[in-house]
Automatic annotation (TrEMBL):
Keywords: Disulfide bond, Glycoprotein, Glycosyltransferase, Golgi apparatus, Lectin, Manganese, Membrane, Metal-binding, Signal-anchor, Transferase, Transmembrane, Transmembrane helix. It holds the Pfam family Ricin_B_lectin. SUPFAM superfamilies: Nucleotide-diphospho-sugar transferases (SSF53448), Ricin B-like lectins (SSF50370). GO terms for molecular function: carbohydrate binding; metal ion binding; polypeptide N-acetylgalactosaminyltransferase activity. It comes from Physeter macrocephalus (Sperm whale). This is Polypeptide N-acetylgalactosaminyltransferase. GO terms for cellular component: Golgi membrane.
Amino acid sequence: MVCTRKTKTLVSTCVILSGMTNIICLLYVGWVTNYIASVYVRGQEPAPDKKLEEDKGDTLKIIERLDHLENVIKQHIQEAPAKPEEAEAEPFTDSSLFAHWGQDLSPEGRRVALKQFQYYGYNAYLSDRLPLDRPLPDLRPSGCHNLSFPSSLPEVSIVFIFVNEALSVLLRSIHSAIERTPPHLLKEIILVDDNSSNEELKEKLSEYVDKVNGQKPGFIKVVRHSKQEGLIRSRVSGWRAATAPVVALFDAHVEFNVGWAEPVLTRIKENRKRIISPSFDNIKYDNFEIEEYPLAAQGFDWELWCRYLNPPKAWWKLENSTAPIRSPALIGCFIVDRQYFQEIGLLDEGMEVYGGENVELGIRPIVYICHGMTPQNVYYTSSQQIQVGVLSPTVDDDDNRCLVDVNSRPRLIECSYAKAKRMKLHWQFSQGGPIQNRKSKRCLELQENSGAEFGFQLVLQRCSGQHWTITNVLRSLAS
């Protein structure tokens, strides 16, 4: 059982599968939200049924406002200048930056602050003047303070990915992770620079890393891309560099609060097949104040943009704000067992830039079919397809999945869909021979993996001579 709280960022929209992970996330474009006082108000309580409806109503109102942010995000991504010096400061009076901050700045200070704001999307001018170890309010539900956790938990590698992030924001993310994660649980921090052009992120960042590593050799690793790879491949780069049993993948504009790690690692220790997205409070983009966010799950619309969902009625009936919320979508910031992440194929490295990582794991068929959810029957058809599903397939049967070579990974995809999209679903196979994709020429083979359930995992790779034998052959599939 873990506590939950949540928010959204520009570069990753953050969803709850589990919480008490009191992490603060910097929001690029701010908006107004109201604190849900009815959830935590002390004193006289309304009737349970009435209180439940009030809580749900307030949450839904905020969820509607949060959803509106997606259009703002799209516009902001398109309008961001390439470099700080390319940003032309707009008139001071027209900027939202100075609505609640900066009235005492000189004209030159306002010009510099606005120029940085137009480049970064948040108040980097103010961030540069805040301490790395600034105090943060503890906004967790009160029940979180009474929870206990196992003394033996797996270590975690924290991965931060960034491109042209403000140096002070990145350093505050790193510093808060170090200071607010129990030392015996934090094995290392990995920084993935997706080919930043900002010079501060080279020399000055290296100086900081050298200083930390001087005290703890090898504690911070830096991975630098020679070209921009985008969010997905950057996260995978960080995963590849990680060595701890658990990997936490984050953007580089967050601040960790006390007690974030123990509940997450406890849930993964209980079940290594859980993928957990921690909850986030918001760092206001203009004045860097911390704003508490309501509880919600996440889904997605037909455009695959994240949408905030009211928690299910069963969760509300628990009347326990520390309980985790199951979510149909998963955003970029998440914590996962390192080996299990490999077993399910990591993230799809064929996706470019931003916008797919929030739903890709949630809708990937292999997650639902291949990892203990249901038993499966596998058969090789005369049309050279390897199908997974019922034993008596018909044209109208939509429960059949075909093995497909997708970006060098074995994936199970609905057969009719794979046919329509002309995917690589045809295989050459004979009893006692290799299973080779007719188009890609890659072979389906077993690869040793100590973290996998049976010590092996299926991979698609250059054929090495592995042979397959079907031990039970059905001469007829007719019912």
